[in-house]
Amino acid sequence: MIVSISLAALLGVLVIVLVKGGYVRLGSATACVLFGFTLAATGLAPAINNALASLAGLFSSL
């Protein structure tokens, strides 16, 4: 749970930096966020969470 919250915070900060820097427009960022929420409501969400947890475990063991 801690990993997913910190990952969400990191990705949120990344989106803000990209929007402020002009690399991503507000409309594109909004579309990506809405896609993420839609994807989280599908049956693919557990597989994505498991993959992220595996990556976090891999990086924490380094």
Structure, described:
With 62 residues, this protein is mainly alpha-helical. It has helices at 2-21, 26-40, 45-60. The model has no long low-confidence stretch (mean pLDDT 82).
Helix and strand topology:
Blueprint: H1 2-21, H2 26-40, H3 45-60
Overall SS class: mainly alpha
Total count of helical runs of at least 4 residues: 3
Spatial shape: flat
- What is the helical fraction, as a range of percent? over 70%
The fraction of residues assigned to DSSP E strands is under 5%
| Uncertain stretches | none
Mean pLDDT: 82
> How many strands, what sense, and barrel or not for the largest sheet?
none
Number of strands: 0
> Rg to the nearest angstrom?
13 Å
What is the first-to-last residue Cα distance?
20 Å
H/E order of the elements? HHH
Quick take:
It contains three helices and no strands.
Describe this protein with a few key phrases.
mainly alpha, 3 helices
